[in-house]
Amino acid sequence: MVRPKKKKPKKKWKIQDVILFSLAVVFSASIIFAGFSYVFNPPKPPPEPPSLFAAIIDPLSVDFPNQTFIDEAETLLENSGYTVDVYSWELVTVDFYRILPALNYDLIIIRSPQCWFEDQPGRDYGIPIFLVTAEEFDQDKYVILQGNDQVVPVQPWVNGTVYFAASPDFVLDVMQGQFQGTVIIIAGSFGLFDNSLAIEMFDKGAIAIVSWKGGIITPYMDSAIVLLLNNLFVEKITLEDAVEDTNNTLGTFGGTLGFYPYSAREIRFIL
Predict the structure, then answer these.
(1) CA-closest candidate to residue 165, choices 208, 121, 128
(2) How far apart are CA 28 and CA 125, in angstroms?
(3) Residue 20 within a domain
(4) Which of 7, 36, 75, 119 has its CA 20 to 30 A from that of 247?
(5) Are 82 and 106 in contact (CB under 8 A)?
(6) Residue 2 lies in a domain
(7) Which residues partner with 53 through β-bridges?
(8) 126 touches 194 (CB < 8 A)
(9) Nearest 5 degrees, angle CA 37-CA 39-CA 42?
(10) Residue 19: inside a domain
(11) What string of pLDDT tens digits covers the 271 residues of the chain?
(12) What is the CATH number of the domain that holds 210?
């Protein structure tokens, strides 16, 4: 006689088993979903810092070169995230200044001297303020610009050579393009003795123009600009405080460092 097999009783699920199984399913689904999400929607890399560009324009090097200043300023700016272009004296022409706004620099340092009239040696050319080039004057060149007093002959250095210099009207009417929120440091005497040049640069798109309101000597000027850059880009203090500290630390030597316009006082370089 064959006995029928007994059926095994069905396993009863305990509540903790149900919970563990549910968690395992949810965890597996999460892993699968995350994998698909990564493949089809990979994470975006962190945004790169903005590209920043600075120019050091050095017509003064025709008579007073200072490679130590160039190296120190360039290092400070590069450590602050700037790509730096250096223009030595032979590149600083009327046509160079003509295209300067279109080069789209965020920061421009113009190492430039005070200048005198060609026919009045020894007289400070203070009003209006001119941008000095290192291009030798030629009465047959830029005839229209000369006729409009947009460029003039000046004798800014002890070497006796006469050079072209560009007027505020040159900035307004001849320069091509617009400065794009540029900070311009005119490292030289009398840059803010009169605001005529600064006003035109501001109207051309610059947000701040920094320079001296009187005469200064070149070694002091170079040291002051390095200190100013350190205040702005290492100490990261406001433009007003950076200028004030530079004056207080090094003194004025006949010319006080200032800035234009007054609204630029709160500019701070936090990169």
Answers:
(1) 128
(2) 80
(3) no
(4) 75
(5) yes
(6) no
(7) 83
(8) yes
(9) 75
(10) no
(11) 555 555 555 555 556 555 555 555 555 555 555 555 555 555 555 555 568 999 999 999 988 999 999 999 999 999 999 999 999 999 999 999 999 999 999 999 999 875 544 444 444 444 578 899 999 999 999 999 999 989 998 887 777 888 999 988 999 999 999 999 999 999 988 888 888 899 999 999 999 999 998 888 889 999 999 999 999 999 999 999 999 999 999 887 778 999 999 999 999 987 6
(12) 3.40.50
Report the alpha-carbon distance of residue 206 to residue 148 in Å, rounded. Answer: 24
- In the chain, the number of structural domains is 1
236 — phi, psi (to 5°)? 55, 40
Neighbouring C-beta atoms of residue 119, cutoff 10 Å = 9
Q: What is the pTM of this model?
A: 0.79
Q: Position of tokens 């100490």?
A: 235
Buried b (16+ CB within 10 A) or exposed e, 125-139: bbebbbbbbbbebee
Residue 246 within any structural domain of the chain? no
